[in-house]
Amino acid sequence: MPELPEVETVARGLRQHLVGRTITSVEVYCEGSIATPCPEEFRARLLGQQVRAVDRRGKFIVIGLQDSDLLVHLRMTGQLLVAPADQVCSLRHVRVALTLGDLRLLFNDARKFGRMALVPSAVEWLAALGPEPFDEQVTASTLAARSRNRRLPIKSLLLDQRFVAGVGNIYADEVLHAACIAPGRLACSLSYAEFEALLAALRSELQRAIADRGTTLSDYRDADGQSGRHQQALRVYGREGQPCPRCGRPIVRIRLGGRSSYHCPHCQK
DNA sequence: AACCTCACCTGCGGGC
DNA sequence: TGCCCGCAGGTGAGGT
Questions:
Q1: Beta strand A34-36 with A115-119: parallel, antiparallel or unpaired?
Q2: Interatomic separation, CA of residue A20 and C1' of nucleotide C14, rounded (Å)
Q3: Which residues interact with strand C by a CB < 7 Å criterion?
Q4: Domain extent for A38
Q5: Do A174 and A223 lie in a common domain?
Q6: Is the minimum distance from the CB of A90 to strand B below 7 Å?
Q7: Which of A65, A94, A125 marks a domain boundary?
Q8: Would you say the pTM of this structure is higher than 0.70?
Q9: What is the mean pLDDT of chain A?
Q10: Is residue A269 part of a domain?
Q11: Is the per-residue pLDDT at A41 higher than 90?
């Protein structure tokens, strides 16, 4: 579920609480939630490490330690929550818990899709990820060039984390609506002007969602357990049958790449 | 190589 | 009330 704006919000909250603290205990309740290394090594290597920084890359949270990086991907239902270490925990799906002095960092994840990975270098581990949408090197020209031979729906390309990092199903639909582009259009068929509109929409939609601290449809919470408020600003996602905010005609849901896609067939061409 | 589908899990809401 | 079905924001393995 969490996409770039939600992960950014979580990372900011974690940064505030965790930077400078030292990991004093590690509890792994679900071994499958650790991608690498093995749980024993994961625990041993984390103990005593001080948190240097907390960042985001695409949909990954990067917790920078002294000699390694702890990566967290929340996938659909993952949450990273900070709570007082002495507080009784009422969460039902805690997979990993780290104690840092008098704080506890809880990785809660109902569907067990999320993963933690302790790696020597986040930059190397995430090298295959595409550029951040706010990176200056991303321009309408570079997007157009990289789409030239791509005969797949533009929405599918937006969801490909190697194309740009951080876009998921909700914001892909919102961005395409803002840019007046139909989700099923083949990527190679977009004009230069459409790539300009797409990039502008990508940046403004993500920025607005970050300002709203993300979209909460069900599970998403920030590091302090708070919901986002961008769900009220969504224009198409989840709004099948409701009027398009731009032209008033009904929003339509289609199936694209196995996922629900919401769009306005009248004003998205 | 490029693209598509499905499996991975669990929970929840709607229909019967 | 309770059961069953379909659906869910992400990703990558495997098939075409």
A1: parallel
A2: 44
A3: A 1-3, 6, 58-59, 73, 75-76, 111, 113, 159, 161, 168-170, 215-220, 258-260
A4: 4-125
A5: yes
A6: no
A7: A125
A8: yes
A9: 95
A10: no
A11: yes
